[in-house]
Amino acid sequence: MAHTHDHSGHDHGAGHVQGSSDKKRVLIAACLTAGFMVAEALGGLFTGSLALLADAGHMLADAIALGLAWYAFHLAGRPATGQLTYGFGRIKTLVAYTNGIAIFVIALWIVYEAWNRLLTPAPVLGGPMLGVAILGLLVNIGSFLVLHGGDRDNLNMRGAILHVLGDLLGSAAAIVAALVILATGWTPIDPILSVLVSLLILSTAWSLMRAAAHVLLEGVPPSLDRDLIARDIQAVVKGVREVHHMHIWSIDGTSSMATLHACLNEGVDAHQAVSAIKKRLASEHGISHATVEPEFGHCADDGDGHDHKHGHDAVPHHGHYH
């Protein structure tokens, strides 16, 4: 079966330029984060501030995560191999999912530490804490601005932005805590704000993990509706009687792929029908790569258990849609 690739060259070129830009952005953010993380950790130990230590903990994990994100972009540029026929694009999604798990672990650790601090309050040096927190905020704003100009549809980039956003919120919370301690001497504000920041980060980490898991499980991209696309092909492409065994998925959350069986009317030119289906998928639905199996009469997979195996995830026969 021939595949039409006439439309993909430009997309690949544009994607490569965007990917190269994102790769540089992530590397700059990783260097900024790693550089200040040491200073913030020392500041947290010196001042006794959990908010600063929590933010330094975030920044340590984020420096590692941003480094992994950079490496994922680096690997994604490699060509496909005989063993990895789709290439390395999904590594970015895998790193995004791993980043989400890392954020969860860090946030839970901060909540645990905050609980201990509330039970046994510790002295906090508000003045030095404020100075370190302000510097941290400036560094995190710089990292966020660098990443913000990247491709936010890319799950790996979203993971990187999420990490830096968590650091930014952590620094802001540390500033507020330092101001309250300086004004009132009330130290419990330090662990309380640390917990609030952790809860905010947990909710965003969850959404990132869900999106990455959906890609890893080869779910239909959220912007597409498989059954509507199948009906569209049946209605628009001449000679197509029925579409079934249709699967749509994404390698990296940006480019979509599909496989399907097209049951054709007798006398229809199979090559023309397949070509028309592929053009329709590319132009109207943004599916850049499709494998289409043309059929006349009965489905080639009928009678071998294939239908029963895939009944829940393939478009049913005879036009009965869920």
pLDDT below 50 for ≥5 consecutive residues: which ranges? 1-14, 305-314, 317-322
Q: CATH superfamily membership of the largest domain, which one?
A: Cation efflux protein transmembrane domain
Tell me about the biggest sheet? Answer: 3 strands, mixed
Q: The CATH topology of the largest domain is what? A: Alpha-lytic protease prodomain-like
Number of separate helices: 9
| Name of the CATH architecture of the largest domain | Up-down Bundle
Rough shape? elongated
- Please give the order of strands in the largest beta sheet: 1-2-3
> What is the rounded Rg?
26 Å
Membrane topology: Multi-pass membrane protein
Family: Belongs to the cation diffusion facilitator (CDF) transporter (TC 2.A.4) family. SLC30A subfamily.
Pfam family, one: Cation_efflux
Keywords: Ion transport, Membrane, Transmembrane, Transmembrane helix, Transport, Zinc, Zinc transport
Q: What does this molecule look like?
A:
This protein has a 3-stranded mixed β-sheet with strand order 1-2-3, covered by helices on one side. With 322 residues, it is mainly α. Mean pLDDT is 81; it is low at 1-14, 305-314 and 317-322. Helices cover 65% and strands 9% of the residues. Helix 2 (50-76) runs parallel beside helix 6 (189-216), helix 3 runs parallel beside helix 5 (155-184) and helix 4 (126-148) packs antiparallel against helix 5. It is a multi-pass membrane protein. Belongs to the cation diffusion facilitator (CDF) transporter (TC 2.A.4) family. SLC30A subfamily.
